[in-house]
Write a structure and sequence with these properties.
The protein is α+β, with helices and mostly antiparallel strands and about 130 residues long. It is built from three helices and three strands. Helices cover about 55% and strands about 15% of the residues.
Length: about 130
Amino acid sequence: MSMPSFASDPAGFAEELARQATRMKERADRAERAMASASFTAASRDKSVTVTVNSAGALTGVEFGSKARALTRIQLAATVMETYAQATAEAGRRSREVLAELLGDRSETLGAFDAVLPPADPDPKRQR
């Protein structure tokens, strides 16, 4: 449906504007709920570490499997950091999907979000 002209149909224009605002608010509310309830979990390759983050990438849980005992402190720390990077990368990708649905895939705001997303490959050894 095309937008009525303000000059020829001010009431129709106002009604359509109100409908669009309502649809935008509904989409924003859905996005807010999706982001607020989202959590993302990643496990290390050897299953020694599992990390959970929220949609903002904040750490909400760390679990150590039985294989973690065999790791040195340095290895364990590196495994936690690598697994955390995997979880935050997934949180960023999923958050982007929610924002793209809300804002449109070509939005300038989404472009700014893309600029700060973690790399697709969270292994720091391969980013050099």
